[in-house]
Amino acid sequence: MSDIEAKSPVRAAGAKALAAYLHDEIASGRMRDGIKLPAERQLSEQFGASRGSVRRVLQGLKELGLITQTVGSGTFVLPGAARALPAPELVIDEISETQTSPAELMEARLLIEPLMPKLIARNATSSDFARMMECIDRSEAAQTVEEFEHWDGELHRTFAMATHNSFFLKVLELTNRVREQGEWGRLKRHSLTPERRKEYEAQHRAIVEALRDRDAEQAGQVLIGHLRQIQHNLFGI
Question: More exposed terminus of the chain, fewer Cβ within 10 Å: N or C?
Answer without folding.
Answer: C
